[in-house]
Amino acid sequence: MVVCPEDLDTDAWWCSSGNNVSGASDASIGAGLTNTNEILTGCGEPLSAAKICDDATIGGYSDWYLPSEDELKAVYFKVHQKGQGNFASNFYWTSTKTNSTTAQHVRFDNGTAGFSTMTNAHYVRGVRNF
Question: How many Å apart are CA 47 and CA 28, to the nearest integer?
Fold first, then answer.
């Protein structure tokens, strides 16, 4: 994975109509792109975290997606903990849905995962495959 060099948003929700998203519950590494596509199918809202990643063009690349829980935890431990990436000590959305009203986030102050109501505002950082 390649990590986007900057936050794409600091005030995005996961989806205000999460019950329309089928799937997107895989937390494993490699699941982020599939989860993102499932979110986009059920929730194409312009301010959703998945849509923000999907719409981004950074460094000439437009294939960014919202990372799964395990992908984002890997970013925390392999990038942020090494002092790279300029991450905020805040909650970042993952593409992993918990249930019809909540989704997983990763705390970038300590690397733990938890869940939030999909309409909560969190940071967004996209990733892409290379």
Answer: 25
Written as six digits, the tokens of 28 are: 């494993």
SS3 10: strand
pTM over 0.70: yes
Would you say the C-alpha torsion 50, 116, 29, 22 has a positive or negative sign?
Answer: negative
Rounded distance between C-alpha atoms, residue 50 and residue 54, angstroms: 6
Strand pairing partners for 6?
Answer: none
DSSP assignment of 70-96, as one string? HHHHHHHHHTGGGT-S---SSEEEEEE
Give residue for tokens 């986030």: 105
Three-state DSSP at 7 gives coil
Give the C-alpha separation, 119 to 17, whole Å.
9
How many CB atoms sit inside 10 A of residue 123's CB? 20
pLDDT digits (tens, 9 = 90+) for 13-48: 999 876 789 899 999 999 999 999 999 999 878 889
Contact 75, 3 (CB under 8 A): yes
The CA distance from 109 to 1, in Å, is 22
